[in-house]
Design goal:
With 113 residues, this protein is α+β, with helices and mostly antiparallel strands. The chain has a domain of 64 residues: GMP Synthetase, Chain A, domain 3 (2-Layer Sandwich), CATH 3.30.300. It has three helices and three strands, in the order H-E-E-H-E-H. Strands 1-2-3 form a three-stranded mixed sheet, covered by helices on one side.
């Protein structure tokens, strides 16, 4: 969050956190785990003019449900009244690996913690 324990988080940091919380509502339809715990979200940034920028990946470039996931990302983030537009960027660098998953996701999917 902030660099110093005495510093309060900025409005942008608070909004970044709220965007990330909304992304936890987006469940990967194949795996049944949210995209944040799966490690698919690389960056979120609340920008001027009420834009939420999201840099994310998919577990595979050939994900057949990509459009559904992207649509759910858009809907979830736009539930925040401060967000009018979602700018979604897809990247496969670095490529997704199972070690990007949270401990919760690893346990839920049967990976060694």
């Amino acid at each position: 969050m902030s660099d110093s324990p005495n510093e309060l988080p900025t409005e942008q940091q608070i909004m970044n956190g709220r965007i990330l919380e909304q992304l936890e509502l987006v469940i990967d339809p194949e795996l049944g785990i949210d995209i944040v715990n799966l490690g698919l979200v690389y960056q979120v940034e609340y920008r001027e003019q009420n834009i939420a920028y999201i840099l994310m990946t998919l577990t595979t470039p050939a994900c057949p449900l990509a459009d559904i996931i992207f649509d759910e990302v858009d809907k979830a983030v736009k539930l925040l009244e401060e967000v009018d537009e979602v700018e979604l960027e897809l990247s496969f660098y670095p490529p997704w690996q199972p070690d990007r998953m949270s401990r919760y996701a690893k346990i839920a999917l049967g990976f060694p913690g």
